[in-house]
């Protein structure tokens, strides 16, 4: 095996270990988060999703799996990624502050009973923390995907919120687990609402 192949192998092993540890520790919180989202959707609510960088992509990935479909052919479900409208993002950042790019949209779009999916590997992104604060003030529950020590986001959550904190300090490994968690949430939501088949 070449040095580079060995490095690739190590990265795969680290990712597998991070996922194994997460499966052992996080299953109850993942089920709680899916229940929270399913209840909101059943009651006519929607899910707003946000994050920065790779987590912005994760927010969009999740929203598209709800709006379009995951594995089951079923009607679209209401979800909005707060990361996609460049006119809104640039004008809020330009006129106010980058910290406000998600919270302003939460105040405009969020209704009591909706859920905010807040994704931050460090838990420290000020715009994600501000989105949670705006959500809480409007009666939304937050499902937070975090890592490390949960950061300011983990610390700001209330008893009705759910934190899924990946036990790792490496941003890339945390993101890899977040994507798996997102697919677990989609699977449990579909199963709860439409009786999806067992995972293949
Ligand atoms: O994808 C990566 C690193 O893997 C980066 O784009 C990463 O998402 C960005 O640095 C984010 O700004 C990090 O924010 P956060 O996860 O700490 O909230
Ligand atoms: Zn990344």
TrEMBL record:
Pfam family, one: SIS_2
All residue ranges annotated as the SIS domain in the record: 37-199
Record EC number: 5.3.1.28
Keywords carried by this UniProt record: Carbohydrate metabolism, Cytoplasm, Isomerase, Metal-binding, Zinc
Gene3D superfamilies (alphabetical): Glucose-6-phosphate isomerase like protein, domain 1
GO MF entries: isomerase activity
Localization: Cytoplasm
Keyword Nuclease part of the UniProt annotation: no
Pathway stated in the Swiss-Prot or TrEMBL entry: Carbohydrate biosynthesis; D-glycero-D-manno-heptose 7-phosphate biosynthesis; D-glycero-alpha-D-manno-heptose 7-phosphate and D-glycero-beta-D-manno-heptose 7-phosphate from sedoheptulose 7-phosphate: step 1/1
Reactions catalysed according to its record: 2 D-sedoheptulose 7-phosphate = D-glycero-alpha-D-manno-heptose 7-phosphate + D-glycero-beta-D-manno-heptose 7-phosphate
Chain positions recorded as substrate binding sites: 52-54, 65, 94-95, 120-122, 125, 175
EC category: isomerase
Cofactor remark from the record: Binds 1 zinc ion per subunit.
Subunit organization: Homotetramer.
Record family assignment: Belongs to the SIS family. GmhA subfamily.
Further remarks about this protein from its record: The reaction produces a racemic mixture of D-glycero-alpha-D-manno-heptose 7-phosphate and D-glycero-beta-D-manno-heptose 7-phosphate.
Function: Catalyzes the isomerization of sedoheptulose 7-phosphate in D-glycero-D-manno-heptose 7-phosphate.
Designated name of the protein: Phosphoheptose isomerase
Provenance organism: Halorhodospira neutriphila
């Amino acid at each position: 095996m070449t040095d580079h192949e060995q490095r690739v192998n190590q990265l795969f092993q680290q990712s597998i270990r991070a996922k194994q540890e997460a499966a052992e520790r996080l299953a109850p919180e993942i089920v709680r988060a899916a229940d929270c989202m399913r209840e909101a959707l059943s009651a006519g609510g929607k899910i707003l999703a946000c994050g920065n960088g790779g987590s912005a992509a994760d927010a969009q990935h999740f929203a598209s799996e709800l709006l379009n479909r995951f594995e089951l052919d079923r009607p679209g479900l209401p979800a909005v990624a707060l990361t996609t409208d460049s006119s809104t993002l640039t004008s809020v950042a330009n006129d106010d502050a980058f910290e406000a790019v998600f919270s302003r949209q939460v105040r405009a779009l969020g209704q009591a009973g909706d859920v905010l999916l807040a994704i931050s590997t460090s838990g420290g992104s000020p715009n994600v923390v501000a989105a949670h604060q705006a959500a809480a003030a409007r009666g939304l529950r937050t499902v937070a995907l975090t890592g490390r020590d949960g950061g300011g986001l983990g610390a700001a959550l209330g008893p009705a919120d759910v934190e899924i904190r990946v036990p790792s300090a490496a941003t890339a490994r945390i993101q890899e687990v977040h994507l798996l968690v997102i697919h677990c949430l989609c699977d449990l939501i579909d199963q709860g609402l439409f009786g999806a088949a067992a995972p293949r």
